[in-house]
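Model it.
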Amino acid sequence: MKRQITAGFLAAAVGVFGLSPAAYADTTTTLTATEMAAAVDAIVTATKAASVPGWTADVRFAGDDVQSKLSVDAPNGHASVSYNGQVQVYAVDHQGMYGVISNATQRAALKSIGRPGVRYVYEVDKSVDLGTPVSFAGSDTFSTISASKVSHDDGTTDYTGELDEQSTMTWRVDAAGVLTGVDLTDEFTFAFSYGPQAVTMPTAAQSISTSGLQRVTAAYQMPANLKNAANSAASAGRAKSGSRTTKVAAVRAQARKLAQRLGGADAGTDIVRVTNISNGVRIYGTNPYTKQKISYQVTVSSSKKVSVKKG
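Modeled.
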């Protein structure tokens, strides 16, 4: 059963299902797996047609008070996901996703380069598939099991089947055969509606790429990261017993390890750099936005004393 449409924060927001049983049942029949497969095929066809202009899904997790909503502007391939009325995620079909930047350090970093208006980080993700309501409803699984069919006097129908010993799924269908809700026992609910949706995507001024945000943040943290890397390299040298050469090797190894993690390749940037100097290492960097330059030298003396010097 498909419970996710993407990696990262959109999958967590929309990988759920929902409905409530109808109050009055007129007729109850039992469908074989073959009959159920035919019923599901008909529902899928009707639902896909209904979702062409756009659609929404109201999401509820069992035992969770958060109200989530997925709104899909199908013609433009845009979608938004909100929690308690606040949009947290935007998605572009088969392109990627925008997530709200809530981290205080990242927001301070953006402010430091004169971009306080940036609110979203964009991550390329070709696997994003907005699909249709049936994309979330587990149709592949539901079409392979026997189920009960309850036909109501208003033309609506409920289909209920056991997925396993602990899980029961119900599909609610309107008089036109369109899926309006799905319920999975004790887990989550989905309620669908259909029609054009207005999803206003973030502008270029309001967004930044994932790599761009990494670079801005690394630049903002560069002074502290350089100092920490220098002090840590010095500590590694002091802790290493043996000759001066052995201590120098320890200093250089630790400096490179931290520089790579804090502002180098592991951080997705090249802001923090390391170069060998006589009997030690130089750790340095330039903020590409402010042009601030900072440098530390960590050296081992002939008496095997390790020192840190700024500049």
